[in-house]
Amino acid sequence: MKIFKPLMAVLVIALLSSCEKKTEFAEYLVARPLIMTKADFITSVDILPPQPIEESGKIYTYQDMIFINDKYEGIHVIDNSNPASPQKIAYISLAGTVDISIKDDVLYADSIRDLVLFDISDISNIQEISRMENVLQDNVIWPFDADIIEWVEYDYENELIVGWETTTEIRRVEQTRNFGGLDDIAIAENADSGGTGQGGSLARFKIVGDHLYAVDQTSINLFDISDVSNPVEGQDVFVSFDIETIFNRGDHLFLGGQRGMYIYDITDPAFPAYVSEFQHGTACDPVVVDGDYAYVTLRGGNTCGAVESGLYIVDISTIENPTLAVQYPMDEPHGLGIKDEKLFICDGASGLKVFDKTDIMGLTTLDVFSDIVTFDVIPQEDRLLLVGDDVLTQFTYTESGLNLLSSFALD
């Protein structure tokens, strides 16, 4: 028997080596919840001097100021009176925030399920006005871009999830099969008159007249802000189970969801009324509107959905019956915006893509800025603002295209 042991050892080693070679490895974006005690959550608001950014989120402009969300952490305040040389001037520490909107020097921000108000009339002395608790009932933000969500146990009575930490990790493909995603557990925003700011297509807050519309995962949350510092909560309107973004044109709200675009009439602003919807395969979905068309970017893969990424152009000339006009492939689109006949798409790591949309059936590529990572965009009258990969980029418009005005690192 001893004669065969070396042979058996060789066979075992060979077998193991063969299995090891067949094992596939891949990169995965892994998300883990950030836990905070409820006591710390309520008292975590603070106005601080400029801070380095952890993860750039959405962008919002108001007068000569730019506000950039630091996902789940706070809001960076930037003086943009000289766009060639923007300057950080303050940081609003606010746990669980991803969205803001501003009217008449009052900043409204989400903090998980709470709505928090700040007086920014003196930008050098920002003051918290009030906190409205539990008015955004389904406002828990899920990490839709993650491949894997690793859950952790926490004390539901005394703690809450305020956000997500994401890391890129190399794992065996076989080992990840037991981990699931969520199924298992124009101008981007038309600026209003009356001192209202402007956000991008990824916004979930929108001020129209005297009302703030804040969409959570399932509903439109309404607030009468005719007294800007004393909002009055209205009746929530249930929409679906997958709402992500909001856009306004005239008397209509266009809501982007993972399964479709939903259109609501706000002729009576206190009572949004369902008009119609356009259904598509499951994907992350912001929308902007210009003329007779809605422009929808769908980002597939990860927990965003199963469809391939692309741009869907939807005919809304008959608003009660939106229909797909044409679609174009994209890589990993996020925010988008429109100015005149130009369409700007933030295509993630593939950069900023600029199209001439004069003929929607044959979009013409005008330019591709592949050397920048893009997330959210705001086309203003005189310049284009982009945020992505912790950098604020600004371009000016020229007859020949876009000229770089400034690139400002947020770290």
From TrEMBL:
Pfam families: LVIVD (PF08309). InterPro entries: LVIVD. This is LVIVD repeat-containing protein.
